[in-house]
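Exercise: predict the structure of this protein bound to manganese (II) ion.
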Amino acid sequence: MIPVNPDRFLQDLHSLRAIGASGVGKGVVRPAYSAADIEARDWLAQRMIDAGLTPQFDPMGSLFGLVEGPSLLMGSHSDTQPEGGWLDGALGVIAALEVARAAKESGGPPVSVVSFQDEEGRFGVTTGSAAWSGVLPAEKIGALTDPKGITLPEARAAMGDRLGGWVDPKRFTGFLEMHIEQGPLLDQTGGKIGVVEAIVGIRDRVIRFEGQQNHAGTTPMALRRDAFQALGRFNTLINERFRNVVTPATVWTIGHVSLHPNAHSVVPGKVAFSMQWRDGEAERLRRMEEIIRESAEEVAQAMGMTLAFGPMLGVEPVAMDRAMRSALAEAAEAEVPEQWRQMPSGALHDASNMARLMPAAMLFVPSIGGISHDFAEDTAEADLVSGLNVLARAVARMPASTG
Ligand code: GLV
Ligand code: MN
Ligand code: MN
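Solution:
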């Protein structure tokens, strides 16, 4: 087992939390390319130097801390949702830093560290690691916008001359990511560790209805072309139609709605909304896409709307590497006997993209109350340390690092 230092790990985790702290509980506001995000990356680059790693930003702003020669890559992301918790992403980055640092100090296996940029999808879906892995083609990057219409290159310019070249993925023997579960399973069952079997696939696109903006007092109901009513009917239709297609594990979300002009006394003429759906089976994702398209077309026709679809973003469902999973399972059994389980991930992670480049695996620790993407997100410190210890045990057993 690599001799990791739990106190130093927790201290670093709390130092990172202070950058962009929301003031509500342990909440953090550190969206990709914001001043807080860049400050956090500069802080991390210095911690990497202190640990004997060489920091390098890639063209997206993902930050690597490299050792010389072949190594295992560990990490996650340090950007957050608009209202984020302190652990989503940060945990995997700081655990990686501690393992890499302790490995270096003790002459253990070589470990490099990464904090990917925009995992939380201000501009897409796991944007930084998707770009590095080729899941997001280079020619599409310039056109990506956030919900306010700011383009990715405009936002990225804030990183200035930090940005460097791509890191060669061939220098890494595998990718290992620790993360909070972000769901209720471990918390409800008393589990301490989850070894991830597979990560669900996701589809995400913006849909727009445009009708006629008009006076809310004088326009008879029968003559309205109300964009909000169109969204309401579309939502009801897909919920009915998905019933024949989905499993209890399938999820779908309309999480961002922009209604125009968004005023009490105006029949809204335009709506743009996000439509996201996730499942472990690519075929089910495709059938849901058909239902979404047909339902939107039907509503537009029936209610006199024009309809437009934004670009389809997505990541395929992916299984984690079998040999790395076995190493994690053995380490979990040694650290928390009979208090761990194999489980799928319903949240998306950078490991999905990494699985295209190299063997990839993931470890979960419990989320209190199953809450995440909220300021209330938290995990007991004892569970954070158990996760760190499982990593420290597993890295020594990883097939690539022992071979
Ligand atoms: C990543 O945070 C996701 O949306 O699953
Ligand atoms: Mn995350
Ligand atoms: Mn997240």
